[in-house]
Amino acid sequence: MSYRRLEADDFVVSSEAISSTCWTTNAPQLTTFFTSSTQANGSSGTYYLNIFDSATTSSVQFAIAYGNAAGSGSAVYNTAVNGLSPTSTIFGQWQDLVIGDENTNFVFGNITSSEFFALPIERACYKDSIFLGSLTLNLSGTLGSIKLTDNSSLYSTNGLAVQFNEAGRVFQLVSGSAGVINTSVNANGYSLASGSYGWLLPDIGTIILNPLALSGSLVSGGIGFRWSGSNATGSAAYTPATNANFSMFQAISGSTGFTLNSQETITSDFIFVRPRSSEFNYSENPSFISGSTGAVLYPQFINNPQVYITTIGLYNDTNQLLAVAKLSRPLTKDFTKEALVRVKLDF
Amino acid sequence: MAYLSNEFVTIDAVLTRKGRELLARNDGSFRITQFALADDEIDYTLYNPNHPSGSAYYGQAIVNMPLLEAFPQTQQSMKYKLITLPRGTNLLPILNIGYPSISLPQGASLALKPQTLNYLGGTTVEPSGYTATISDIRVLNNFEGVGVNTPAVTALNITNQTTTIGTSVSKTVVGTVINMTATTVNTLFNAASQLSATLTVVGNDSGARVTVPVTITKS
């Protein structure tokens, strides 16, 4: 026989969480940020800006999309209809996705806001979800700079119940870095009067920024962030170079970098292959046979055959080869040896 | 194709093209139930039973050889299976399908009756039959195995595996007789006068294997 059936206890299924940097540069911190003039000046540029790691590659790392309930910050679709513009579309899109209620606004900490910046991370970058406690987003404004992180450490150390919304888990964005909260302005890491700096939504790979918290003075926890939206000139003349998304791009690209890790659960199927001592001791290899009669190559092989396992084939009931595994070096097999090989298949 | 580092014994496993195809089909056919071992890449003439340092060194030239990574192509892996036979066996099974190569004109049929020599004490047809795989099913109008009627084999033999359009998809059947009919579709030939594929037949009990070229000639 050349096939051997696997027993039920030869299979073990294991899930393992793997974390790694989000960025395609494979560096922990993204330090260079580029936009594409083709995308920014195209039809999608009125809604969002794609951010790249390099001017020469086409690897999108994340996007920036400004949402405003009143439609401020971009030109209206039709001058006869007030309040409907790309920013109001973005607001409604995220309101539906994250809150699930078109009548409820975003509440950052304890402050209700009708505007935000969404930073959706490229799906291939964040994989399954964002790894909690890994975020350090540096932003620079007219007054200074700030580092933002998530407050997930409070939930692991204080035993608080994690909050959920329509987008899964929700953590507040606070002053700090790599999950460590900076309490110099506010004990909870929030801005002094404008609530938290936004949300981290790890399950959909998105950061929601609260621009009001960033717009304040340094003593109130802000950085003097300015953008073309409700705090500026409303729906006045719109060009890609001055829209709100570009303002946020400048705040990010003018800073020292953006650190974020992804998390992925890899489900592995371990299969234990156990050839017994009396099994698999002869070979159909043509070099094992002498001539066309099928006689074994050496007389020693008649009673003490020695073969070398190089390949393991995994089959279904109808002998179709589903997976193949190669050893890194040949494994000797004879009537005095048994082997136990663990094959790992990742899905 | 790269070499595997052999400083440590590691395992490099990949899904085969057939495995991915069955996984995508999502009909339960991707279910690992058995394994086989092979010694592809091993040249037993390197085994030296006259090594001056003794029997511990007979396989010296083999055990330290570097091995290539796994091939995802089904027909390129598990070529030479290790088999379980009683100790003292001096003749190994040999598979004979009666043809060193198969050449068929368009529309012609052929019934292959594989036989296994040196196996099962004089019985030349293996009870579990033979697994036959045509590397490109487009070259055949009909490819079927008959003579083995287990539920799994019956399910395999009736499955339509030619639903992928425009690409070379292999088809596997099991039987003691393998029937095939060359394609009648002229447009497959384009400007060529022949179509080519390979047929691999494996004895399901013995593991003996033979691969022959298949050529379909335009009428």
Radius of gyration of chain B: 20 Å
**Terminal CA distance of chain A:** 30 Å
Into which percentage range does the β-strand content of chain A fall? 35-45%
Structural class by helix and strand composition of chain A = mainly beta
Order of strands, main sheet of chain B, comes to: 5-13-12-8-10
Number of helices of chain A: 7
Taking the sheet with the most strands of chain A, its summary is: 12 strands, antiparallel
- Name the quaternary structure: heterodimer
How many DSSP-defined strands of chain B?
Answer: 13
The topology string of helices and strands of chain B comes to EHEHEEEEEEEHEEEE
Classification by helices and strands of chain B? mainly beta
**How many distinct beta strands of chain A?**
24
Task: Identify low-pLDDT runs of chain B.
Answer: none
The average pLDDT score of chain B comes to 85
Q: Overall 3D geometry of chain A?
A: elongated
Radius of gyration based on Cα positions of chain A: 29 Å
Q: What does it look like?
A:
The complex is a heterodimer of chains A (347) and B (219). Chain A has 347 residues and is mostly beta strands. Helix content of chain A is 14%, strand content 36%. Chain A has helices at 37-40, 86-99, 123-126, 152-158, 211-215, 244-253, 300-303, and strands at residues 4-5, 11-21, 29-30, 48-52, 60-68, 106-108, 111-113, 115-120, 129-130, 136-140, 145-150, 163-165, 168-177, 180-181, 198-201, 206-209, 258-259, 261-273, 282-283, 289-290, 295-296, 307-315, 321-333, 341-346. In chain A, strands 3, 4, 5, 8, 10, 11, 12, 13, 14, 15, 16 and 17 form a twelve-stranded antiparallel sheet that branches. In chain A, strands 2, 9, 18 and 24 form a four-stranded antiparallel sheet that branches. A two-stranded antiparallel ribbon of chain A has the order 6-7. In chain A, strand 6 (106-108) and strand 7 (111-113) form a beta hairpin. Chain B is mainly beta and 219 residues long. In chain B, 10% of the residues lie in helices and 31% in strands. Chain B has three helices and 13 strands. In chain B, strands 5-13-12-8-10 form a five-stranded mixed sheet. In chain B, a hairpin with a 5-residue loop joins strand 12 (194-203) and strand 13. Chain B is globular and about 65 Å long. Chain B starts with 10 loop residues before the first strand and ends with a strand. At the A-B interface, strand 1, strand 18, strand 19, strand 21 and helix 7 of A face strand 1, helix 1, strand 2, strand 3 and helix 3 of B.
